[in-house]
Automatic annotation (TrEMBL):
Main location: other
Protein name: Plakophilin-2
Upper classification of the organism: Eukaryota, Metazoa, Chordata, Craniata, Vertebrata
Positions of region (Disordered): 79-108
Compositional bias annotation for Basic and acidic residues: 94-107
InterPro entries: ARM-like, ARM-type_fold, Armadillo, Plakophilin/d_Catenin
UniProt organism field: Tauraco erythrolophus (Red-crested turaco)
């Protein structure tokens, strides 16, 4: 577990180690089957896989990038990674939609297991069944790592989480009952998932009211709370930017007063959250059909 966080070279060597990833996956599968999701070895195993999934899209060996990322490379190298508020964001997302998803192998080995739907379902199972904060956070963090990029692999993982494995209910539960750092990681995962246009209606329907409910009434709290608040605002931005329907959902969930209060805070700790809330308000105002509702 310690060695897996030793940097790019350490991750590379461990990913290439014959049988290591397969053994970790096998052990976690056995622990879940035996109803032992809270033992320390399971925590260590999932933390290792979490670390090995970090920067995976960037650090994939060329043999994988040639086979599943050729169309990704057709996107101009001048295109920057789309952020929440990037001017090229929509264009890159549209290209991402046209990129074929990587085909899954029925019996993955080694590094291939890191983004396979089998392991994605294992993470979701641990999120739902484990009560260890580190195990939950590592499972959420691995999914966050895997959905962080803009290529076909992150998009495929996001679609598996939301549509194929029905992972949103488990993530939604974490928003309400968990340790602050676990909650922060869950929100960061939702932020990544919300960048995919084809998943936004599902995400808004399932978790948008929950995101509003965990927003603080005012900008007060720790750095972790401030970061979580900013991530929630970015997620809501993604969900409402192109959808008047989702903006109306935000309104009906009584999100507007909270977002206004956060945007008006000028403390250094909450400056990032305040900026995110302000940009969200600016975006919400672009839905002219909702102006009268906003004013009321």
């Amino acid at each position: 577990r310690n060695m897996s966080s030793a940097g790019p070279e350490g991750r590379k060597k461990m990913r290439e180690c014959n049988g290591l990833i397969d053994s970790l996956v096998y052990y976690i599968q056995g622990a879940i089957a035996d109803h032992e999701p809270n033992d320390k070895a399971t925590e260590n195993s999932v933390c290792i896989l979490h670390n090995l999934s970090y920067q995976l899209e960037i650090e994939l060996p060329e043999t994988y990038t040639q086979s599943i990322y050729m169309q990704k490379r057709n996107i101009s190298s001048n295109d920057k990674t789309p952020g929440c508020f990037g001017t090229r964001s929509r264009k890159v997302k549209e290209k991402q939609q046209d990129t074929p998803l990587p085909e899954e192998k029925s019996n993955p080995r080694g590094i291939e297991s890191l983004w396979h739907s089998t392991l994605i379902r294992i993470y979701l199972s641990l999120i739902a069944k484990s009560t260890r904060n580190y195990t939950q956070e590592a499972s959420l963090g691995a999914l966050q790592n895997l959905t962080a990029g803009t290529g076909p692999m992150p998009f495929a993982v996001a679609r598996t989480v939301v549509q194929k494995a029905n992972g949103l209910p488990s993530i939604r539960t974490i928003l309400h009952v968990s340790h602050p750092t676990v909650k922060k990681t869950a929100v960061s995962l939702l932020r990544n998932l919300s960048r995919n246009p084809s998943l936004q209606s599902d995400i808004a329907r399932e978790v948008l009211p929950d995101l509003i409910s965990i927003l603080p009434e005012s900008a007060q709290g720790s750095d972790t709370v401030a970061e979580t608040t900013a991530s929630i605002c970015y997620t809501l931005y993604n969900l409402t930017q192109s959808s008047s329907h989702n903006a109306r959902l935000l309104l009906s969930a009584h999100g507007l007063p909270k977002i206004i209060a956060i945007s008006m805070n000028d403390s250094n700790m909450f400056s990032k959250a305040s900026r995110a809330a302000s940009v969200l308000l600016y975006s919400l105002w672009s839905h002219t059909d909702l102006h009268s509702a906003y004013k009321k």
